[in-house]
Amino acid sequence: xxxxxxxxxxxxxxxxxxxxxxxxxxxxxxxxxxxxxxxxxxxxxxxxxxxxxxxxxxxxxxxxxxxxxxxxxxxxxxxxxxxxxxxxxxxxxxxxxxxxxxxxxxxxxxxxxxxxxxxxxxxxxxxxxxxxxxxxxxxxxxxxxxxxxxxxxxxxxxxxxxxxxxxxxxxxxxxxxxxxxxxxxxxxxxxxxxxxxxxxxxxxxxxxxxxxxxxxxxxxxxxxxxxxxxxxxxxxxxxxxxxxxxxxxxxxxxxxxxxxxxxxxxxxxxxxxxxxxxxxxxxxxxxxxxxxxxxxxxxxxxxxxxxxxxxxxxxxxxxxxxxxxxxxxxxxxxxxxxxxxxxxxxxxxxxxxxxxxxxxxxxxxxxxxxxxxxxxxxxxxxxxxxxxxxxxxxxxxxxxxxxxxxxxxxxxxxxxxxxxxxxxxxxxxxxxxxxxxxxxxxxxxxxxxxxxxxxxxxxxxxxxx
Length: 465
Prior knowledge:
Largest sheet: 9 strands, mixed
GO molecular function: manganese ion binding; metalloaminopeptidase activity
CATH topology of the largest domain: Aminopeptidase
Number of helices: 15
Mean pLDDT: 96
CATH class of the largest domain: Alpha Beta
Number of domains: 2
CATH superfamily of the largest domain: Zn peptidases
Keywords: Aminopeptidase, Hydrolase, Manganese, Protease
Structural class: alpha/beta
């Protein structure tokens, strides 16, 4: 993993290149204060202070070296991404802002320097770290942890399915446990079939080397409030016997994006030592096509005791989450968060950038929305509309795993999950794309963390206030 700790240092003076931040409102006045030669260079570079992520090099005001001028949307309210382009493009060296502190922009500075190159025969040459100096030394550790967690999501999602099966998700959880002194338990084989029949049913078509399992991680003091974090770990989704078309299957290595988010959020909780008792659950499966795969029309059991009719084998994520949510609820947590790349309907409704958030508790929903705004990690609340529960009716079983209507697909999926969360347990469900289809500075095309920073900020405010 990229060593982000080398890229943020406390500012104790010493030489560094100066970064001048300007926006469309203050650029004219700032430019007038520059020397004639510096203004000429800005004109030659067609730098107007308005174009997003635009920057230019200037001779240093004093001595040798250079300064940097960069356009941002608002110099008074820096976003996490306004320094990302500089982190990507500047040469190695030490930098500080001419005025003010980078604040949230430190995150983009770090993430702009990360590349996932595991499958490159000739990785990009190492240009050395671009170090940002800050007086906000107390914020460095958390910013580094946030960058590490974001990259964890991205790298796990970007890894091809051939190299990331259920056993590899288990290995990722064990690495976290080793780093932070947590305990891991894994249910597989007969134990899984008897205790978690929906997880077993979804994964029963996979080859033995990619057998299904429920991965649990426990961390924290027994006296601290208990929280549960659940992540959908479908390492590859063919759709099962209701097989996806080729175009729909192309990105299904990312169907474990919910598990990646859950692991990353657990990383933040443990790394920054939130005073909670953490219970992480990752049901890890591969939804394969084979003679032993579950069939449309099958009726399967669940850990909760409900019988579920399989209307569509491609609606498998909600099945494995149902058993995991049941297990999480048995510990009587103060709240439950789950993350899943669950429905295409959420993408149709909200596009790739906005994860759909459902919550059964108003205080929890408002807290997540407040945190999302505070840390610029957007989410959008969707309704748990009771009237659509009837779409999940089954003539044979207690409920079906897929609605009898193509409408409101994200809502009915969330309503299915709600059946496995006890009344009175605060719960929020994120239906996320976990993927960026086109690059932006600090945010390359590929796997992406969405709602992760909002969720952590909410937990931090709730349990350290």
